[in-house]
UniProtKB/TrEMBL annotation:
The gene is ribH. The keyword Manganese does not apply. One of its GO terms (biological process) is riboflavin biosynthetic process. This is 6,7-dimethyl-8-ribityllumazine synthase. Signal peptide: none annotated.
Amino acid sequence: MAGISHYTLELPKFDTAPRLLIVVAPYYKDIADNLIAGAKAVAEEAGAYVDVIEVPGALEVPTAIAMAARMADYDGFVALGCVIRGETTHYETVCNDSSRGLTLMGLEGICIGNGILTVENYEQAAVRADPKDQNKGGGAAAAALHLISLSRKWARRTKGIGFKPAESFRIAGETDGSKNA
């Protein structure tokens, strides 16, 4: 829908550059290349380090991110790809399962920006992937960066309002360890 605009948050600022892993399914290579270009540009603007890996399809994106979250040293992840509706129900399976996998990891605290396009046709994908148009790759990178910023902010805090863990404690009936007790 032409003419509709939306509010976009300003990119967060970082004391230490975040490390992002872009995981892309290049099934539609030109679409994927545009998504990557948009994501890299936003990451660069925020001062992030970026690595890119390719996987066979959108269903493999969550698996690769889960593996990297366990085994590699990244602050966040950008999921990129494109699923175009076809003649079978496979479209729904790929869209729903890739999105569900990313959402479940996000709920576990993994910082993920979802830029897997789910569209009716190639023309819709081209507009959404174009860094000079809707730039959904850039939007996914921005989402991951915002989540990294929040996780860093909250990692510096202690749990609970006004709660500070005791530096030492005694079990009831114990003495303080002095011989006179």
